[in-house]
Design a protein that fits this description.
Arc Repressor Mutant, subunit A; OB fold (Dihydrolipoamide Acetyltransferase, E2P); alpha+beta; 5-stranded mixed beta barrel; rod-shaped; 2 domains; 6 helices
Length: 222
């Protein structure tokens, strides 16, 4: 094999090699507060967090539940579900209460972040928890991710005031305010209530018995 051909083969190996993405160390709380970004086609989806964009993560946590193809992990900062869809080495030996180190990929379902398991290994030395906490304390934020909360439609709050009253209520309110015992003058009612069709409203209210005429030009509430 000549040198030119050998060089071409080496370049081909480099160009066709699939590089596995780094599994970043982080806390479960960081994952739960992240925003999942779905990428099209062959591009890797990732979780956008305060500490960077993660396609693969490395977590140390305690297994607090295990059922079928799912385990629940707790690292003291939060809990997260880790699922496996293929055979994962070492999983059969994992029991509830075990301290484990896992490598997985963040995913999202129904607005909840979970992990797909790639690697899981039991850890016997509990000191690894304290060591991982120190490691995470050294990692600095690169941004502040604001997770959008679902928008809840609020019912409008109606505050009753002179401005929101309808015409009939304004007339009643005005009469009550002007009546010192001998009724309210109809001209004053029309002027104070400031209703364009005040006379028509007053006549209708008189006919329906909502107010009455104490004497000529003086109105009173029923």
């Amino acid at each position: 094999m000549n040198k030119v051909y050998k060089k071409m083969v080496e370049e081909l190996k480099v160009n066709t090699e699939i590089k596995r993405q780094t599994a970043y160390k982080c806390s479960i709380n960081t994952l739960n507060n992240g925003v999942f970004v779905k990428r099209p086609g062959w591009e890797s989806s990732f979780l956008m967090t305060d500490y960077g964009d993660f396609s693969r993560v490395n977590i140390i946590a305690v297994v607090v539940a295990k059922e079928n193809n799912n385990i629940i992990l707790d690292d003291g900062t939060g809990k997260i579900s880790a699922r496996f869809f293929d055979n994962v080495n070492g999983l059969d030996d994992i029991e509830v209460g075990d301290l484990v180190i896992i490598v997985g990929r963040p995913r999202e379902y129904n607005n909840n972040i979970y992990l797909t398991l790639e690697i899981v290994k039991k850890i016997n030395n509990k000191l690894w928890i304290a060591y991982r906490k120190k490691e995470l304390m050294l990692i600095k934020k690169v941004r502040d991710v604001v997770k959008e909360e679902p928008k809840v439609q609020k019912e409008p709050v109606i505050v009753e005031s002179a401005n929101t009253m309808n015409s009939r209520e304004k007339i009643l309110h005005t009469i009550s305010g002007l009546d010192n015992g001998d009724g309210a003058d109809i001209e004053d009612i029309i002027r104070v209530s400031d209703i364009r069709n005040a006379e028509e409203v007053i006549q209708d209210m008189l006919l329906k018995g909502e107010i009455f005429e104490l004497r000529a030009g003086r109105l009173k509430l029923m």
